[in-house]
């Protein structure tokens, strides 16, 4: 099905359309200085394609929330949710194909990057059966895919840049069509901008940005001056979804408007003329004397000396030492509580480690001697139902799984437990929960990696059921459906 989105008129007055199906396959980059009309262009695209395709808008300024009442978009105020909740919302939106505006207006720059990274990554990690076509519009893309780190933490910058790279580089096969807008190409990461095949270049003044825009449009450097002369709302367009040669497009009108618009001149308030010299010469109001209640209390010398001579308070009584069996019991109970929490699989390891330490202190263990790597391994065992790693029945399996990266140990032990007890092979969904992901594709790559290390031998019978053998231990699961 071919759907052309009317974007406006060219220099001859002819309508310029954007092939929506081609756009889904080739992505779009919009560039222009502040005030050039980028948001107006995006709004025109969203309004004219509403009802034809699912739309996901990452909105750092809250400008696009007005699409909700007019076109039925779900508006999510990111400041009202935690990061795991935002990820779950993205997964459900992907499943139900609902159009959404994610408003990041109430967050600081680092919070916006964290939230956008989690949201986009959840869209990217959706199960294959939910890979429906969707336009993913990211306004002010230079905030989420910067060329340098700026003042945000490096891990936040990397997570945000990775999510944007996945959207633009690998999102097409998952039905995600990235539409990104930026004020300056020089501030946008090159590996994100380079993946777009369609370009709409608005007014810009800096030489470096004009040069990059001219290169993307296939124009000679001496022709780049034309980009500086563009009027507000005019864009140079090029790409398989709009035109095979650069054309000048004036974007058409829109039906909704942003909550905040461009500043307009308004008349100054009428007031009686006041002599400025008289106003400046007015005496200041006299300072009121400090009231009696506001004065600091004078402490008598005797009272002060008594306070100095008073012995210090005794230190708190230390918690009694616990033997190894009691410590292991506290560990097991804390790990059981964490594994039973349905949200634990979506929380990062360091956060779960803090939760584990708090639970241990509440149980009377002052300073758990377990460090973060040790906790990661114990948590992997616990997710497979093994709460005592010293149990002789599991020592060999744990040692064998120890040759894998720590994040794979839980999935390995889950299969090992089913194989030892002769139970059906765990499904991809069960392995995904243990591995800490919602992507079944990542689970299949995980199984392939473990099999490449000669730790798994996977067999699929004629009915499509899967069984896994662990040759070093001689254990085999029963055959079961992989899904």
In short:
With about 475 residues, the protein is an alpha/beta fold. Helix content is about 40%, strand content about 15%.
Structural features:
Rossmann fold; Arc Repressor Mutant, subunit A; 11-stranded mixed sheet; single chain; 15 strands; alpha/beta; 4-stranded antiparallel sheet; flat; 483 residues
Describe this structure in words.
The protein is of the alpha/beta class. The strands form two sheets. It has an eleven-stranded mixed β-sheet with strand order 2-1-11-10-9-3-8-7-4-6-5. A hairpin with a 4-residue loop joins strand 13 and strand 14. The two termini are 32 Å apart. About 1% of the residues have low confidence. It comes from Sphingomonas abaci.
Percent range for helical residues?
Answer: 25-40%
Q: Please tell me the CATH architecture of the largest domain by its name.
A: 3-Layer(aba) Sandwich
Helix/strand/pairing category: alpha/beta
Radius of gyration: 31 Å
InterPro entries: AAA_16, ATPase_Atu1862_pred, HerA-like, P-loop_NTPase
Domain Orc1-like AAA ATPase: 28-155
Protein name: Orc1-like AAA ATPase domain-containing protein
Pfam families: AAA_16
